[in-house]
What does this fold into?
Amino acid sequence: MLKVENLVVRYGMIEAIKGLSFEVNDGEIVTLIGANGAGKTTTMHTISGLLRPASGSITLDGVDITKIPAHKIVTMGLAQIPERRRVFASQTVEENLDLGAFTRKDKDGIVHDLARVYELFPRLQERKKQLAGTLSGGEQQMLAMGRALMAKPKILLLDEPSMGLSPLLVKEIFRIIEEINKQGTTILLVEQNAKMALAIANRAYVLETGKITLEGTGKQLAESPQVQKVYLGG
It folds into this structure.
């Protein structure tokens, strides 16, 4: 579904991503783990069209999207949930969700997907008239996920969904990620909580200073002595 080949991304003279290659197959949960500064968010922003690579290619369902603007990539079935949620604080929950569907014209489908979001996140329905900026961190994360789902993505990019959340809420968010995947959405997950990420991932990659250093199934990397030592506190 998604293929990244020989990707190079620079900030001025600094090469943040150094020939990165990986793929995400239809129906999978794939996770990228790595320390701060490894290039995880840069990778996500480049895939979604917010950054332009110096070289390399990104294909979605066989179509090269490397130079396609971000707003058009959304219409092709890729949506990103950004780090730190980035909800529209002065808009209500309902208005945020409506904005998630701004590229769509299928009114019946939008109504159906709104009902699906409220089923996944009952708290959002309870607070649908509440301003997004007054929600808790966990509720804002749920809103960001719901807003992205309203774009009806085939593949969903999640950037640090557990950031700043309590352990109980982290478990709930990861349970919902698995449920979204079971309902047919492919997932690319960037996450510092390596233990939780590897537990739900079909496959995983370790990113260090802009390069892939390890790859395998989620189980294989969770059992890797190197990963345990660096990322799992083993």
